[in-house]
Q: What sequence folds into this?
């Protein structure tokens, strides 16, 4: 097992120790981080890593989520995948990068609401 695989397994183990609402809260936090990073054009690689981590969070969480949560997570997963298909083009265009930030903020709020942590 290589070092990056071991790190990913360790991250998953830590992430999965939390209850579902907390995991969704962590995903919402990642999405808020993408919004924040989008204000800094030089941090495209960092944002890309947070996007990738968020996709893992969704993958690891979805099986335990309710049907309504799963539908939302699937739509979010599609959004993140679309970003990944043309990341450099999106990130290097200020208007498109701003749109990524806005969309990430929307999804952060949506996932946080789905988590039940606000109740």
A:
């Amino acid at each position: 097992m290589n070092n990056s695989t071991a790190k990913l397994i360790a991250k998953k183990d830590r992430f999965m120790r939390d209850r579902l609402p907390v995991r969704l809260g962590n995903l919402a936090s990642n999405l808020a981080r993408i919004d924040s990073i989008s204000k800094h054009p030089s941090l495209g690689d960092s944002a890309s890593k947070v996007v990738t981590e968020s996709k893992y969070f969704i993958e690891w969480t979805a099986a335990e989520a309710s049907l309504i949560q799963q539908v939302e997570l699937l739509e979010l997963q599609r959004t993140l995948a679309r970003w990944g298909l043309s990341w450099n083009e999106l990130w290097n265009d200020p208007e498109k990068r701003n749109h990524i930030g806005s969309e990430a903020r929307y999804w952060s709020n949506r996932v946080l609401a789905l988590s039940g942590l606000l109740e």
Notes: The CA atoms of residues 58 and 73 lie 6 Å apart.
